[in-house]
């Protein structure tokens, strides 16, 4: 392991200054106070090591922060869904193996003692490698932890996807890694205390001077309370990020020369859910603008490539640097801090950010070595053949026309929920199903279909649920989904590739329904596009009752669709949809569109098919 020597202030020392440090309750995910060092409660008594005592003879020095975010299980630069090295049009690469070489290069250039390395969350979910890691015994070291430890990270914050596999999986990871995993606004319901350390203090010795203290606070988007309700409800809660920053930044600023906030959230104050009680999903710029005392923030969650953004704090008038590395390890943000001694204490006088593209660096053999066993096991797993497809099926056009491959998802979801309703008072209700085109590149080849083919179609670790909706609510839901399309002219040719993703709506927020027949007139304005909604050839009545199969993300409010998050839940057995697809294919051995494909929806203009 190639970590520079740093000191995280021990819990015992903080207890003398702030009062007792209270770890999370035993049994709530299993983390203990072994990762509780570096935080306490209440006001401090100065600047940690004492700014007035001096930090050496020089009047200035430079520190460098390296930051990553949203790795999503990328260790090696490999695409498990294609079973080939990762490629994208930009030429960007992925994975911690390349990140490691970037870190080594900067440490060599700047001096290891002046460099600290942080990660901004969403690391435990996203590839078959992390899916398998979540299924393995708790005793096995998590491959992401092994990779981070080789690199020598100093801190990271939890993202929303750290809760996808439950608190036990997160706790196992926390025990595996050598650095603190932070989460100031993640609160243990039983104790009311932070479930994870709110912050850590890193003491950095530069040029032989007295230590410079870097305070690192971790905040995560509160949407996890919605998206992973079944995993966290009654155990942890997520408090507002802005209010939590207001609580902890002054505490850390009293102890640190440099204050960094790791915020697993984007900017702009937007939310993909409609629940004010939970808090805003993406308030990073609000924190920078309203909470004084922050020198720099690492932001993420939204998968943008935004290495430098300046926000002026309205309290102090000082600039705060926000940096967002590109997702999956495509870039590493390098933030250089200039510190100047003023009246006996160090102040950050400048901060600049640069994006280091990992495609320009080789994969680190040491990271490859410590993760090779998990990588090979994943390759073997995804290449298992589960069925034979009678023809090639693709999602290439699923955004704008009905395709068999999405109906494969619909069929499995419908069958699963319909069988579960047998013998209940809803057994006679029609079962509808909701699916979205997660990927434009998913393909079932004609012939052998592997687990990686199915994983490429259903890329998220969602579980299946079902709710009851009325006919009027189904119509409202479809109207919201239809806002994905831009309004087309009343006449003339239309290129279907240009009419999707209106207002930046991602493909995964466009939902297709099965079980009803409907037309979407995209020449009309949003809210008036569902011109036909029928079942068995008859118009759907407003008071008709339906059971609707849907994934847990959408049912919990992800995407902000109407009615779905407040509707009565009639099915929830915590079964992963991707695994249901795999098992359905294995049991039958053949994937034949004739068994499930029903053309039930189309885009129209004045009642005529838009695309011929």
Task: Describe this structure as you would to a colleague.
The chain is of the alpha/beta class and 612 residues long. The protein folds into two domains: 7-378, Purple Acid Phosphatase, chain A, domain 2, CATH 3.60.21; 384-609, 5'-nucleotidase,  domain 2, CATH 3.90.780.10. It is 24% helix and 26% strand. The chain is built from 15 helices and 32 strands. A seven-stranded mixed sheet has the order 1-9-10-12-13-15-14, covered by helices on one side. Strands 7-6-5-2-16-17 form a six-stranded mixed sheet, with helices on one face. It has a five-stranded mixed sheet with strand order 24-20-28-23-29. Strand 14 (306-312) and strand 15 (319-324) form a beta hairpin. Helix 2 packs parallel to helix 4. It is globular and about 80 Å long. Residues 1-57 have low confidence and may be disordered. This is 2',3'-cyclic-nucleotide 2'-phosphodiesterase/3'-nucleotidase. It comes from Modestobacter marinus. Keywords: Hydrolase, Nucleotide-binding, Signal. Residues 385-564 form the 5'-Nucleotidase C-terminal domain. Residues 65-304 form the Calcineurin-like phosphoesterase domain.
Give the integer mean of the pLDDT values. 89
The secondary-structure class comes to: alpha/beta
Strand element count: 32
Main pleated sheet? 7 strands, mixed
Q: What is the C-alpha radius of gyration, as a whole number of Å? A: 26 Å
Which strand-content bin applies to the residues? 25-35%
- The end-to-end span amounts to 61 Å
Number of domains: 2
* Helical segment count: 15
Q: Can you tell me the CATH superfamily of the largest domain?
A: Metallo-dependent phosphatases
Shape category:
globular
CATH level 3 topology of the largest domain: Purple Acid Phosphatase, chain A, domain 2
Any idea what the CATH architecture of the largest domain is?
Answer: 4-Layer Sandwich
CATH class categorisation of the largest domain: Alpha Beta
In what order do the strands lie side by side in the largest sheet?
1-9-10-12-13-15-14
Task: Name the helicity range.
Answer: 10-25%
Task: Give the low-pLDDT segments.
Answer: 1-57
GO molecular function: 2',3'-cyclic-nucleotide 2'-phosphodiesterase activity; 3'-nucleotidase activity; metal ion binding; nucleotide binding
Signal peptide: 1-26
Organism: Modestobacter marinus
GO biological process, one term: nucleotide catabolic process
């Amino acid at each position: 392991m190639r970590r520079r020597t740093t000191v995280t202030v021990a819990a015992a020392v903080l207890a003398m200054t702030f009062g007792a440090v209270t770890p999370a309750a035993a049994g709530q995910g299993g983390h203990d106070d072994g990762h509780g060092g570096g935080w306490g409660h209440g006001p401090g008594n100065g600047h940690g090591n004492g700014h007035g005592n001096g930090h050496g003879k020089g009047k200035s020095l430079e520190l460098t922060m390296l930051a990553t975010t949203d790795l999503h299980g990328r260790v090696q630069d490999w695409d498990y869904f294609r079973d080939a090295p990762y490629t994208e049009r930009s030429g960007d690469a992925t994975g911690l193996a390349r990140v490691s070489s970037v870190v080594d290069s900067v440490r060599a250039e700047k001096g290891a003692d002046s460099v600290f390395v942080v990660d901004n969350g969403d690391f435990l979910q996203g590839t078959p490698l992390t899916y398998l890691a979540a299924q393995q015994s708790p005793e096995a070291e998590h491959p992401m932890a092994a990779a981070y430890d080789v690199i020598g990270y100093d801190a990271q914050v939890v993202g929303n996807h750290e809760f996808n596999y439950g608190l036990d999986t997160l706790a196992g990871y926390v025990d595996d890694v050598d650095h603190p995993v932070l989460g100031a606004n993640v609160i243990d319901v039983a104790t009311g205390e932070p479930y994870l350390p709110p912050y850590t203090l890193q003491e950095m010795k530069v040029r032989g001077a007295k230590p410079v203290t870097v305070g690192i606070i971790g905040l995560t988007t509160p949407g996890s309370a919605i998206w992973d309700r079944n995993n966290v409800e009654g155990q942890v809660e997520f408090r507002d990020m802005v209010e939590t920053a207001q609580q902890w930044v002054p505490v850390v600023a009293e102890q640190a020369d440099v204050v960094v906030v790791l915020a697993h959230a984007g900017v702009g104050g937007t939310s993909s859910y409609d629940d004010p009680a939970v808090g805003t999903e993406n308030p990073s710029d609000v924190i920078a603008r309203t909470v004084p005392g922050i020198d720099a923030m690492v932001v993420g969650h939204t998968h943008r490539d935004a290495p430098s953004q300046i926000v002026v704090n309205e309290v102090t008038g000082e600039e705060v640097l926000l940096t967002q590395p590109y997702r999956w390890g495509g870039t590493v943000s390098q933030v250089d801090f200039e510190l100047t001694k003023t009246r006996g204490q160090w102040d950050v006088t400048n901060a600049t950010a640069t994006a280091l593209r990992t495609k320009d660096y080789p994969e680190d053999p040491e990271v490859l070595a410590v993760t090779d066993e998990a990588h090979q096991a994943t390759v073997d797993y995804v290449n298992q053949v589960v069925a034979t497809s009678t023809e090639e099926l693709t999602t290439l056009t699923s955004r704008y026309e009905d395709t068999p491959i999405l109906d494969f998802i619909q069929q499995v979801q419908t069958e699963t929920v319909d069988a579960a309703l047998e013998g209940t008072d809803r057994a006679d209700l029609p079962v509808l199903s909701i699916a979205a085109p997660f990927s434009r590149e998913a393909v079932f080849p004609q012939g052998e279909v592997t687990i990686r083919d199915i994983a490429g179609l259903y890329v998220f670790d969602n579980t299946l649920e079902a709710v009851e909706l009325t006919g009027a609510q189904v119509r409202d839901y479809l109207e919201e989904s239809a806002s994905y399309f831009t309004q087309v002219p009343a006449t003339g040719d239309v290129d279907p590739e240009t009419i999707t993703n209106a207002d930046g709506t991602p493909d995964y927020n466009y939902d297709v329904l099965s079980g009803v027949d409907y037309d979407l007139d995209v020449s009309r304005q949003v809210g008036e596009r569902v011109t036909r909604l029928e079942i068995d050839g008859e118009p759907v009545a407003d008071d008709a009752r339906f059971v609707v199969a849907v994934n847990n993300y959408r049912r919990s409010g992800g995407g902000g669709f109407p009615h779905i998050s407040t509707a009565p839940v009639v099915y929830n057995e915590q079964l992963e949809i991707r695994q249901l697809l795999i098992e359905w294919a294995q049991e039958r051995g053949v994937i034949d569109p004739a068994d499930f494909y029903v053309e039930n929806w189309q885009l129209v203009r004045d009642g005529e098919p838009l695309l011929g």
